[in-house]
Specification:
- This protein has helices at about 5-35, 40-70, 75-90, 95, 105-130, 135-165, 165-185, 190-195, 200-225.
- The protein has about 230 residues and is mainly alpha-helical.
- It is globular.
């Protein structure tokens, strides 16, 4: 434990916390979108359990991330999963309103948070692992400290979504953007994307457009009979 007194330990800890502040924005959006339809008490539980479990999952994922990223098709599947999650989060709000909000809905929100965080963290954890330099205590401390940051960010996002509903659309679009990026980051497409760098941004924009466009169309179709 002598390394705790070494300046490099604290420098590494600051690096990890800073990386998590930068990278936690999209995770806070996912958590806020997943929990926004729950009653206030269940919102708090979903945010706390979802954030805590996501950080634990990220610690485990850091150990195996480098190997996982070498697998072809993994990020293609993960990116498609994010597109589906973004679509579900954009279209499920109206369906969940009313008296049907219960424990099942809260568990579904936590499950959505975990799945989305797992996919979105594949690339991010490599930066965190590099900052930790193989020090597991440093890794766990840095990620654990990031829990309040994600919780605060998610709580703030929910309040903003209630006040400015357009943020829900922008949040779903962000998830679609990350989904498109994730697909193009797959090892199978590496050479193709390297030869055509613009494809990375085109795929990300297409993912955002798909989630927002299809999601709004489905919303309109689902609410049409009521009018």
């Amino acid at each position: 434990m002598d390394y705790v007194n070494h300046p490099d330990f604290w420098i590494g800890l600051v690096k990890i916390i800073w990386i998590n502040i930068i990278l936690s924005g999209d995770n806070a959006v996912v958590i806020a979108l997943a929990a926004r339809s729950l009653p206030p008490e269940q919102q708090r539980k979903a945010i706390m359990f979802g954030s805590g479990a996501a950080v634990v999952l990220r610690i485990v994922l850091t150990v195996v991330a480098a190997k996982l990223l070498e697998l072809s098709f993994l990020q293609i599947v993960g990116g498609c999963l994010l597109l589906w999650i973004g679509l579900q989060l954009l279209t499920s709000h109206d369906e969940e309103e009313g008296a049907g909000k219960g424990t099942g809905t809260m568990m579904a929100a936590i499950r959505t948070i975990l799945i989305a965080d797992l996919v979105m963290s594949l690339d991010n954890v490599i930066a965190v692992a590099a900052a930790a330099g193989g020090n597991m205590l440093l890794l766990i401390l840095g990620l654990a400290i990031s829990i309040p940051l994600v919780i605060f960010g998610s709580t703030l996002m929910i309040k903003l979504m209630e006040r400015f509903p357009v943020i829900v659309i922008l949040g779903a679009g962000l998830i679609g953007w990350v989904g498109g990026e994730t697909i193009m980051n797959d090892k199978l497409l590496h050479g193709f994307v390297e030869a055509n760098p613009a494809l990375h941004y085109l795929a990300a924009a297409a993912g955002a457009a798909l989630v927002v466009g299809l999601g709004l169309w489905l919303q309109k179709r689902n609410t049409a009979p009521a009018h």
